[in-house]
Every structure is written in C-alpha cells, then in structure tokens.
User: Fold this.
Amino acid sequence: MTNDVLQDSTLSRLVEAALMEDIGAGDLTSDAIFGDDDRSRAVIVAKQSGIVAGFDVAAMVFEMSGIDGRMVLHARDGDQVNEGKVLSEIVGRTKGILRGERIALNFLQRMSGIATMTRTFVDAVAGTHAKITDTRKTAPGLRALDKRAVSLGGGINHRFGLDDMILIKDNHIAVAGGIQTAVERCRVHMLSRNIKANIEVETTNLAEVEEALTCTCVRRIMLDNFSPGEMRKAVEAIAGRVEVEASGGIRLENVRAYAETGVDFISIGALTHSVRAFDLSLELTPDNGLPTSG
Assistant:
C-alpha cells in the first residue's frame, strides 16, 4: 500500500522530469514577451464541482519553475469544491508562472479527476459493506500520485506493486497447472525466504472458489467477471472464511448491485486508467502589489 506522503526526493524527480519534458531549451514565447523581473498574479479556478487533489505537487512545480514568489491555497487536498471556486493564488515572476502553468495543471487535473471519480463510486456503494479499491492500472511513473488521489477520494489502495503481496492470477494458475499448485509454490517460497505477505487468488467460477478455499494460507479470494447472482452464491460459499474482492466488468451503473452481494472490496481499474481530467483554469494578471489573502 502506498505511503500517504511521497518522499520529497521522489516527488521532486517526478516534477523535474515533467518540467524538462515541457520546457526543453526554454519557453520561446514567454522569453520573447516578458523580462526576467516582470511579475504577475495568477489564480487557479475550478471549472466544475468535485474533489480536488495535488496541491503539494503543484506548489513544487511552481517553486522549481522559478516563480520566486508564493502559492496560497484556498482549498485543501480532498476538499469538495463547487464550480467557480478559486483554489489557489500564485504571485511571482511571470515567466516562472508560465513555465509551470501547464505541468501544475496537468498534475492537479489528473489527481482531482481520479479523486472525483473515486468519490462517485464510494457514494454509489454507501451503506453497504463494500470498500472501493484501486488497481495497478496507473500511469507509468505516476502510481504514487494516482493512488494518493484514490485515497483522497475516499477509496483504499490495493497493492502498490508486485512486492506488496502475492496475487495469483489466471496466467499464474494456467502455467502452474492449477490453484492448489500455485498456492503451494508460493507458500514454500515465502517460508524458505522468511517472506511475510498475504496471498490472494483470482477465481473465475464457483469451482475455482471451492479449490481456493482448500488452501488455508489464502487470505483473500478475487471473484473476477462474476455476475451479481454468481457473486452472491460465491460469497455465501466463502461464508466469511476469507476476504472477498469483486473485479471485472464493474461500472458505476452496476457497482451497487455488486456491493449488495456482500463482498468486502470492489476493485475498479477505471479509477486510474480511464480518468477524466478535472476541469481547471489558470488566469494570469499583472501583479498590482496587493497582498494575497489566505
């Protein structure tokens, strides 16, 4: 599971790479129009309602882009905001603000979009036992930020990477020759290397569920691409002996039906792999020297 706060060094590397990708040898347009001492004031405005996330990342973007100024927040990560809300003010060097604008908005829009979509799913299953969780279907290099955004939206994080837990999926089972063989190999491997990790097994039908239940070291069973009716039967068969995760084919319009089967977790890849960017804008004006509120 991802840490709540990224290491500063990790975050700075992400931001530095993003800025280098965008700026290259320099901002030809801003360098031609503005001088090094020109200063401006910018506001970031929400163009839709939802959950916002990523302000610490945006602040680092502007710091590293050379604004020589400050960013004052009027909302915090995880806040529900309405359309038209001024989220932050930035005062500093005009060229620095413009160098950081697109990258800061890219991070904010992606993270806020993930957080907003997550909250929509969380609200859809409210009152049930089920918790909404993410997957490893994240943007390469941005997994820590994607998963943080899921948490800010009210979801929980599944494994952060391959070293977090053992998840025996269909391809493992197919090549190993069956669930019991795959689980036993994992058990022996962990025992021989003193590895402490939970084991989850993916199943695709009730027969596989029964086979997984014979393996006493399994802690969670994933029900992959089950219908709600099939899933309810599987949950009844499992009878609380292990945790149950629903996965596959689950959308906003049917997530409630899956939640009501009694599963513990519902994993949604779309939280991060099909995110719709949160609509934000940055509006820039000359700095008139007035103090920034906050």
Notes: Residues 8-120+276-286 form a domain with the Aldehyde Oxidoreductase; domain 3 fold (CATH 3.90.1170.20). The longest helix spans residues 94-124.
